[in-house]
């Protein structure tokens, strides 16, 4: 069931083109709208432009040609702090997000950066860990966890900041079938806008919309791409 906000556009990308300093053209006039509370899959081969597009969503890269709007704000240097409160990114490798000696400290890092008091930080950490099935792991060393537990901790670190949009970069990579199913169910349970960059077509086809990117352009937008489309752009 969708909320009354289902038809509100929270991300609007228009004619986005990006060329790296070495001359590599990664994006070629991308147009993409994502609605509030939508789950949106972004699929494409390696090198298609997925990662470059994702990095524009939290201001890591800035649009020089085209526009990126997040909840009505232009994603530029002036709005960078606000944008990063609105959009959280869960990286493919959770070790890129886990730095501290305990799970608690890793999940608390974001809320503390928001300037919250320690009581609220503690409440957010507890709530986030419970939401991802990691309650009771606060004092564990994250580097001694399984890959699935690390991914859950990384997700908790993002949801503890309560962003409106969460971007997942290949969330089921390096997981066994059971681990993939558990992460898929966790992502589906989150009440926010979700953008999922994935090669996992089972996960993609469970999303509200699927967008396929090829050679820096969105070449398909819909619900479940046909086999011919998958074979053309993803295999």
Task: Give a short synopsis of this structure.
It contains eight helices and ten strands.
Characterization of this structure:
- By secondary structure, this protein is of the alpha/beta class.
- The protein has one domain: Rossmann fold (3-Layer(aba) Sandwich), CATH 3.40.50.
- It has helices spanning 50-55, 80-86, 103-113, 118-131, 147-159, 177-189, 201-204, 227-234; strands at residues 9-19, 25-35, 39-43, 65-70, 73-74, 87-90, 165-169, 193-197, 209-214, 217-222.
- The strands form two sheets. Strands 6-7-8-3-9-10 form a six-stranded mixed β-sheet. The protein has a four-stranded antiparallel β-sheet with strand order 2-1-4-5, covered by helices on one side.
- The two termini are 33 Å apart.
- The model has no long low-confidence stretch (mean pLDDT 92).
Please give the structural blueprint:
Blueprint: E1 9-19, E2 25-35, E3 39-43, H1 50-55, E4 65-70, E5 73-74, H2 80-86, E6 87-90, H3 103-113, H4 118-131, H5 147-159, E7 165-169, H6 177-189, E8 193-197, H7 201-204, E9 209-214, E10 217-222, H8 227-234
Parallel strand pairs: 3-8, 3-9, 6-7, 7-8
Antiparallel strand pairs: 1-2, 1-4, 4-5, 9-10
Helix pairs in contact: 3-4, 3-5, 4-5
């Amino acid at each position: 069931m969708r909320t009354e906000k289902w038809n509100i556009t929270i991300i609007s990308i228009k004619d986005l083109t990006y060329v790296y300093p070495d001359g590599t053209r990664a994006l070629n006039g991308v147009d993409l709208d994502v609605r509030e509370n939508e789950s949106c899959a972004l699929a494409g081969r390696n090198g298609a432009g997925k990662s470059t597009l994702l990095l524009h969503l939290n201001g890591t890269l800035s649009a020089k040609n085209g526009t990126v709007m997040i909840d009505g704000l232009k994603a530029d240097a002036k709005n960078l702090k606000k944008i990063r409160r609105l959009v959280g990114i869960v990286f493919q490798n959770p070790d890129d997000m886990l730095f501290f000696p305990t799970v608690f400290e890793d999940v608390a890092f974001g809320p503390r950066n928001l300037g919250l008091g320690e009581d609220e930080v503690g409440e957010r950490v507890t709530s986030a860990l419970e939401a991802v099935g990691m309650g009771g792991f606060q004092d564990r060393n994250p580097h001694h966890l399984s890959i699935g537990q690390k991914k859950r901790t990384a997700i908790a670190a993002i949801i503890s900041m309560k962003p409106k949009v969460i971007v997942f970069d290949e969330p089921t990579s390096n997981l066994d079938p059971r681990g993939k199913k558990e992460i898929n169910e966790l992502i589906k349970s989150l009440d926010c806008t979700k953008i999922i960059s994935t090669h996992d077509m089972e996960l993609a086809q469970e999303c509200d919309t699927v967008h396929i990117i090829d050679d820096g352009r969105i070449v398909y937008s819909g619900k479940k791409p046909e086999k011919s489309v998958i074979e053309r752009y993803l295999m």
